[in-house]
């Protein structure tokens, strides 16, 4: 199992959600966060000090999927989240050791 973590534009969340629901994803978690990437935001001045790093509001989508689904899910998220401009976001793929459904104590793929 892998967790696909995508940090995307907040205004893209509905499109990404629909894309994932349409390919049969059965659970996902989202959260609001702030971050910056390669461009480090714009340089601004505040009370004489120069700030080189500006955080931007983003949304993180987390989906745990079977190993074989990872490439397809990454592709679906990319297609839905891409504008082609800088700041479209980034996807991180991480290994997941186990999943436990609390209600039934099912584990692993059965608990997803
Ligand atoms: N190396 C990183 N580590 C952790 N989070 C990152 C990293 N790079 C980007 N992020 C997160 O992803 C968000 C979007 O990044 P962004 O799309 O600007 O990446 P980028 O590498 O600058 O690509 P682009 O050139 O397309 O803008 C950031 O606001 C930050 O939250
Ligand atoms: Mg960037």
From TrEMBL:
It comes from the Bacteria. PROSITE patterns: PII_GLNB_CTER, PII_GLNB_DOM. Belongs to the P(II) protein family. The keyword Disulfide bond does not apply. Gene3D superfamilies: 3.30.70.120. InterPro entries: N-reg_PII, N-reg_PII-like_a/b, N-reg_PII/ATP_PRibTrfase_C, N-reg_PII_CS. Keywords: Phosphoprotein. It holds the Pfam family P-II. GO terms for molecular function: ATP binding; enzyme regulator activity. GO terms for cellular component: cytosol. GO terms for biological process: regulation of nitrogen utilization. This is Nitrogen regulatory protein P-II family. Transmembrane segments: none annotated. The modification O-UMP-tyrosine is found at residue 51.
């Amino acid at each position: 199992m892998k967790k696909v973590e995508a940090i995307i534009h907040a205004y893209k969340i509905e499109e990404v959600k629909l894309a994932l629901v349409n390919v049969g994803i059965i659970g996902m978690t989202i959260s609001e966060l702030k971050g910056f990437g390669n461009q480090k935001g714009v340089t601004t001045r505040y009370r004489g000090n120069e700030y080189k790093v500006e955080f931007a509001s983003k949304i993180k989508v987390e989906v745990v999927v079977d190993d074989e689904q990872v490439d397809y899910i990454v592709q679906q998220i990319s297609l839905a989240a891409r504008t082609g401009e800088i700041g479209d976001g980034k996807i991180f793929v991480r290994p997941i050791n186990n999943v436990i459904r609390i209600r039934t104590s099912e584990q692993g793929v059965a608990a997803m």
